[in-house]
Amino acid sequence: MDLEEDVYLLIKQLPNDEKFALISQIKRSSISIPSNISKGAGRNSKKEVRLFLGIANGSTSELETQPILVHR
Prior knowledge:
By secondary structure, the protein is an all-alpha fold. The protein has helices at about 1-15, 20-40, 45-70.
């Protein structure tokens, strides 16, 4: 949740021409992280928990890459 707040602060600093592409992707990946952790926690098997934690981890990697793109 704290990450989500930080992401929204970062987005406010980006140029207007990024609002429809990269900003949208940053929001989706950042929202995906806690959503998939929550989804996994609500599942009935360890296999499903691991699946959703893996998806959240992938979204984390994606989100780490996006500020690098912004900087470049």
